[in-house]
Design goal:
The complex is a heterodimer. By secondary structure, chain A is of the alpha+beta class. Chain A contains 2 helices and 3 strands, in the order αβαββ. In chain A, strands 1-3-2 form a 3-stranded antiparallel beta sheet, with no helix packed on it. In chain A, strand 2 and strand 3 form a beta hairpin. By secondary structure, chain B is mainly α. In chain B, helix 15 runs parallel beside helix 18. Chain B contains 22 helices and 6 strands. The chains are: A alpha+beta, B mainly alpha. Chains A and B meet through helix 1, strand 1 and helix 2 of A and helix 20, strand 3 and helix 22 of B.
Chain lengths: 56, 463
């Protein structure tokens, strides 16, 4: 992830619970290391958001 | 049963088959990783880029056998433009063809209305098999493989009763088509080999042997040449290219899970415990041939003879493949789809043989109505227009993502490449909690294997 951030391109993170089923704690630990903003939430799936990463 | 009624019954059955596999294209999504890879490879082939997939900006041969992408999807992609789901009608057509072959099989094995009723009852049961339900709704090769396997089975039954050059060629074509999508389907030639051996011992004719082996040999040779050119050896496949030996070596490690997958044709998914009563009741249909066969053996042994070709086909073709899949490292119910379908057909035809032969249309009609009722109760027609969640996710993400974004996530590589990356300048960096993508070693036979991820990481860093 750090390498991706250093590339200078926009970096997005798919963080819907269904995509991390069983590994939610790892996802949350990972995201805690970065600064992010929510780009959008899907209408029908509240838990789904997409994150734009910035170096924390 | 008069021929008019038979034609009417067939027309109703055909409509019934279409209803069993129908799903609007808008509600179809490429939401299984294998389906994503099949469709990307077919699109690349149709646009002259070979049977390849692009991972981390590098082009690689697809890991799957070439048959499904080449024969089924690429022709549609080369003739039309649009979303990858536009090739979905070929899967639906394969489903209808499979049900038509099921009709032929049932009405050949059991005469009169009872045979027709057997087809009407078997069809919704196969439709409700978990693996069928999952793969008939996306671009997977399982339903075409099932259709080709039933084609081989019907041709074998015809050859058993009256050997003919045409049926041997049709049988070889079906085995060849199935093998081009899944190597283990080559075992379907076993029953034909026994018939040909019988012909050889009786010294009746070598014509069938030449036609069968020539047709099937051409199909297998094409596959071996493809392997040689693409992967560096005739026996070297995409598995050897993409996976470490430990990932494709047969062993007893998955015996329990694979056995569980084989005993759950009607679901639920693996690892779900306890099994709901409805699923358990349907799964117990696998024992129907044992029970019905026992009854027929005791009370009507002569009637059982008409099922001899199907029994021979199952024992010779399916027993070795089922043993193989018990030892295979990827335990999935869909690999046993034909075995499950064939066992259910065997059980249902046995029950049909028990019914009175005189005035046979009455019990047949009752069974047909029962079959329709089963279908109406169980078929998820209420979910016909339901879009897969992942398709909605990809549609909305596509609208939000810039063309050169780097996307990070935990979804399988090919799914995101299909949904968000293909045709753009985006890049996907998959994170694997269990096993990092960077540990994947790829390479042809004779080449030094290299890490896919390291190349990609270097490239991202240098940009």
């Amino acid at each position: 992830m750090t390498r991706a951030l250093q590339s200078g391109r926009s970096v997005y993170f798919l963080c819907h619970d269904a995509m991390w089923a069983g590994y939610e704690a790892e996802r949350d630990a990972l995201l805690a290391r970065y600064d992010y903003e929510v780009v959008f939430k899907l209408r029908r799936f509240d838990a789904l958001c997409q994150l734009k990463l910035r170096e924390g | 049963m008069t021929s008019v009624w038979r034609k009417v019954a067939f027309a109703v059955y055909l409509l019934f088959s279409v209803a069993l596999v129908y799903k609007p294209i808008d509600a179809v999504g490429v939401v299984i990783s294998d389906a994503a890879e099949y469709s990307i490879a077919a699109e690349n082939l149709a646009s002259g880029e070979g049977l390849t997939v692009t991972v981390h900006g590098e082009r690689h041969p697809t890991r799957y056998l070439p048959g499904f992408s080449t024969l089924w999807l690429a022709p549609i992609y080369s003739l039309t433009d649009g979303a990858p789901e536009r090739a979905f009608p070929v899967v639906q057509l394969a489903g209808v063809a499979m049900f038509w072959l099921l009709w032929l099989l049932c009405t050949t094995l059991v005469s009169g209305a009872n045979g027709i009723a057997a087809a009407f009852v078997s069809a919704p049961l196969i439709r409700h098999m978990h693996a069928f339900d999952e793969t008939v709704q996306t671009l997977m090769s399982d339903v075409p493989i099932l259709a080709a396997s039933f084609g081989a089975c019907v041709a074998f039954v015809a050859c058993w009763r009256k050997p003919s050059s045409r049926n041997f060629v049709i049988g070889a074509l079906c085995v060849g088509i199935a093998t081009s999508m899944r190597l283990t389907c080559l075992a379907l030639c076993g029953p034909f080999a026994l018939l040909l051996l019988r012909d050889l011992l009786r010294r009746t004719s070598y014509r069938h042997l030449l036609l069968f082996s020539g047709t099937l040999g051409a199909a297998v040779a094409t596959l071996l040449i493809y392997n040689w050119v693409v992967f560096g050896g005739p026996m070297h496949t995409g598995c050897h290219y993409w996976l470490a030996p430990i990932d494709y070596t047969l062993g007893f490690g998955n015996l329990g899970v694979a056995g569980e997958a084989m005993m759950r044709p009607f679901g639920p998914r693996l690892h779900i415990h306890p099994v709901p009563v409805a699923n358990a009741a349907l799964n117990s249909l696998l024992l129907l041939p044992v029970v019905a066969g026992g009854v027929l053996l005791v009370f009507a042994r002569k009637r059982l003879r008409s099922l001899s070709p199907l029994l021979a086909f199952l024992l010779v073709a399916l027993l070795p493949t089922q043993v193989f899949f018990l030892l295979y490292p990827f335990p999935e119910a869909r690999f046993s789809l034909f075995a499950h379908a064939a066992v259910v057909v065997l059980g249902v035809t046995m029950v049909a043989l028990m019914l009175p032969q005189e005035r046979a249309q009455w019990p047949g009609a009752v069974l047909a109505v029962a079959g329709l009722t089963v279908a109406l109760c169980c078929h998820p027609w209420t979910q016909l227009a339901q879009r897969p969640m992942l398709k909605t996710v990809f549609d909305q993400a596509n609208a939000a993502l810039p063309d050169d974004a780097i996307v990070i996530g935990a979804l399988p590589e090919m799914l995101v490449v299909r949904g968000l990356v293909h045709g753009t300048n985006r890049e996907y960096v998959p994170l694997r909690v269990k096993r990092s993508f960077e540990t994947w070693m790829i390479g042809k036979r004779g080449e030094e294997r290299r890490s896919l991820g390291i190349q990609a990481s270097k490239r991202i860093r240098s940009k």
